[in-house]
Amino acid sequence: MDTEAGTEPLLRITVAEDPNALQSLLDWLRLEDELRGRLRLESSGSGTGGEMGGLLDVLAVAMGSGGAGAVLARSLSTWLTHRHTDVKVTVRGPDGRSVEVDAHLLQADVPGLIREIRQLVDAPEQQG
After folding, report:
1. Cβ distance 82 to 123 under 8 Å?
2. Run of H or E residues at 102
3. Coil, helix or strand for 100?
4. In this predicted model, what pLDDT tens digit does every residue of 39-76 receive, in sequence order?
5. What pairs with residue 41 in β-bridges?
């Protein structure tokens, strides 16, 4: 995905399994100084008519320079390891690549998750 001058690439995060988890994640990430002003809830646009979906079910994170990607990766990993319910989180980069993490399987590979999210974040910077 190309970005125009003045716009920042967006990571999009979805959370499955727990309907309250996305709001919980948003509240958690808002505590990070580097992410303030970069977070917003969006609609996935997947629902039609009376179906579920189309609600604010995607967390968009504006990524730019300054280490926001590293902060996001670390904070998301910490949030996942502190969950008391199972959730699946998908982080989709601006180029369409994605990482899916099942929180109950994460405990052993937090560094791997951080590495994968950093790769998603860094990809647009390397292409530019």
Report:
1. no
2. strand 98-102
3. strand
4. 999 988 765 444 444 577 999 998 876 678 888 888 98
5. 59
